[in-house]
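Just scan my protein:

——
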Amino acid sequence: MTTIVRAATAGDLHKLALYERQLYGAEGYPELLFYQALRQWPQLLLVAQSDDTVSGYSMMAPLPQQRVSLMSLLVASDYRQLGIGRLLLLHSLQVAAEHGFGEMELSVSPQNDKAINLYQKSGFVICDNVPDYLGPGEHRLIMQRAL
């Protein structure tokens, strides 16, 4: 299997929303959000394509002071443990740096050990632990990395 990371297109967005629903149910990002992200920040919405299938995505959004937020990084369940998350993260860091951002930040569940490990191996450090970040009981670690 060959995997590449490329800019998302409108034709990819239904698959991204499907993966969100499969993983997060009703709490997943809706397809309309992906259309809005593609319209506002087309260079910051990336997909991993494994052979002929979209296997994951990363979505970034600009923040003040030349910072960028990694809003989401998702690998479809059938494609996990193949290095696709790492590949998406590395490409996201590269694209963000190429577009003049100096720092990337993200939030992650304190229970998501695999993601935390991936981010730390990629140079991110935990800078805050925010209770109820996404609502009651939805705690998050805030991680940052210079680009």
In short: The two ends are 30 Å apart (CA to CA). The mean pLDDT is 95.
